[in-house]
């Protein structure tokens, strides 16, 4: 019997290495696939779009916020991988009554590294996990503080406008690369009115490609509210996916810096 403690303090006991895994978090699904668990990964969500081969070949069990427990039952998983923020508490509690569920809780890069190493340990892929983590750790210092303290607002939703503020992984990422979150005095994911947005003191606006898919028309719309700010659409997966996608973080941020 092997016992693992997840990132919210739950004890998960496994008799052996899991052979049927369901992941209900996109970034962690991609990571499990990249570990080489193509045969073991039997269930993902409709938002687990990377890589495409996984998305098109693995059974989908609903969304991150609305899972299909009947589909999960039919797949008979040995282990389910979730996340405190991404998944609904009621869904997780329901799953825990029937299955082994390991939960992540990610606020910074170190939390992400711990998650990756723990999943590697649980699935017998420690060396593969260590290789990915080491590459990310080697790359990250190359983009630390490359911005000069510019104030940025990171938009995640439209109608209402919502932002990533403090106590989020995105806020940690922004701070790491030398940006100052203009909404850093607010918690989590606040909503702001048009009038409140006009009062924000900032130099940059990042419109995330997810969860809301901001487009060029939204950039034009915001120009009227924030005429002095540089407004650009950014890859939301780069800023919020805390698995193996972080291997692309350095190159993306360097290109972003060059383009602004």
Care to describe what's here?
It is built from eleven helices and 13 strands. It has 260 residues and is of the alpha/beta class. It folds into two domains: 2-139, Rossmann fold, CATH 3.40.50; 144-259, Rossmann fold, CATH 3.40.50. The strands form three sheets. Strands 8, 9, 10, 11, 12 and 13 form a six-stranded mixed β-sheet that branches. Strand 1 (2-5) and strand 2 form a beta hairpin. Helix 5 (109-122) packs antiparallel against helix 6 (126-139). The radius of gyration is 19 Å and the shape is globular. The termini are far apart. The mean pLDDT is 96.
Q: Can I get a quick summary?
A:
The chain is of the alpha/beta class. The protein contains eleven helices and 13 strands.
Query: How would a crystallographer describe the biggest sheet?
Result: 6 strands, mixed
- Shape summary: globular
Radius of gyration: 19 Å
Question: How many domains?
Answer: 2
The chain-level mean pLDDT equals 96
CATH topology category name of the largest domain: Rossmann fold
Number of strands: 13
Topology readout:
Blueprint: E1 2-5, E2 11-14, E3 21-23, H1 26-34, E4 41-44, H2 52-57, E5 59-60, H3 69-75, E6 79-83, H4 89-96, E7 101-104, H5 109-122, H6 126-139, E8 151-157, E9 161-163, H7 169-176, E10 180-181, E11 191-192, H8 194-198, E12 204-208, H9 216-225, E13 230-234, H10 236-240, H11 249-259
Parallel strand pairs: 3-4, 3-6, 4-5, 6-7, 8-10, 8-12, 12-13
Antiparallel strand pairs: 1-2, 8-9, 9-11
Helix pairs in contact: 5-6
Give keywords.
six-stranded mixed beta sheet, alpha/beta, Rossmann fold, five-stranded parallel beta sheet, 260 residues, 11 helices, 2 domains
């Amino acid at each position: 019997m092997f016992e693992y403690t997840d990132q919210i303090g739950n004890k998960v006991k496994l008799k052996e290495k899991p052979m049927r895994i369901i992941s209900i978090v996109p970034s962690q699904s991609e990571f499990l696939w990249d570990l080489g668990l193509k045969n073991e990964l039997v269930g993902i969500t409709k938002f687990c779009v990377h890589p495409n081969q996984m998305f098109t070949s693995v059974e989908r069990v609903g969304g991150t916020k609305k899972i299909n427990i009947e589909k999960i039952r039919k797949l008979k998983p040995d282990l389910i991988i979730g996340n405190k923020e991404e998944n609904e508490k009621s869904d997780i509690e329901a799953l825990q009554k029937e299955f082994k569920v390991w939960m992540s809780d990610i606020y910074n890069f170190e939390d992400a590294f711990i998650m990756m190493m723990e999943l590697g340990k649980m699935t017998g892929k420690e060396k593969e996990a260590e290789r990915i983590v080491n590459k990310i750790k080697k790359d990250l210092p190359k983009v630390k503080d490359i911005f000069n303290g510019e104030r940025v607002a990171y938009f995640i939703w439209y109608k209402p406008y919502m932002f990533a503020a403090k106590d989020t992984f995105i806020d940690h990422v922004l701070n790491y690369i030398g940006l100052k979150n203009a909404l850093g005095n607010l918690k989590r994911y606040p909503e702001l009115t048009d009038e409140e947005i006009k009062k924000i003191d900032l130099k940059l606006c990042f419109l995330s490609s997810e969860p809301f898919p901001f487009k060029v028309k939204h950039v034009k719309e915001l120009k009227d509210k924030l005429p002095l700010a540089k407004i650009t659409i950014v890859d939301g997966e780069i800023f919020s996916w805390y698995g193996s996608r972080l291997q692309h973080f350095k190159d993306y941020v360097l290109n972003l810096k060059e383009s602004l």
